[in-house]
Write a structure and sequence with these properties.
Helix content is about 55%, strand content about 15%. With about 100 residues, the protein is α+β, with helices and mostly antiparallel strands. It has a two-stranded antiparallel sheet with strand order 1-2. Strands 3-4 form a two-stranded antiparallel sheet. Helix 1 crosses helix 2 (about 35-45) and helix 1 (about 5-15) runs antiparallel to helix 4.
Length: about 100
């Protein structure tokens, strides 16, 4: 299986279970077009092993434009801890 196919599989797994929570409204990362970009970042880190600190660091560094670009906030502020934990599980299972 090629790397691009593996990234696509990882992106699909992320898309199914990880969402942004805004006022108890869940926007899954595939709907926000963020799942593939995150999969590409995380796929490169899998060879070294992944920790919850790695997940947090990536999500903190991924800035998301809100309000038509008036402001940017880290993705970590938008994803509930339960989804961050699920993301770690997905990544560990994918290793």
């Amino acid at each position: 299986m090629s790397n691009s196919e593996q990234v696509e599989q990882l992106a699909a797994a992320i898309a199914e279970d990880v969402y942004i929570d805004i006022a108890k409204w869940h926007l899954y990362l595939n709907d926000a077009h963020l799942h593939t970009a995150l999969a590409e970042i995380f796929y490169q880190k899998l060879a070294d092993g992944i920790t919850s600190a790695d997940v947090a660091k990536v999500l903190e560094s991924k800035m998301i434009a809100i309000g038509g670009g008036k402001r940017e906030i880290p993705l970590s502020d938008l994803i509930p801890q339960s989804c961050q934990d699920r993301l770690l599980t997905i990544l560990e299972e994918f290793e």
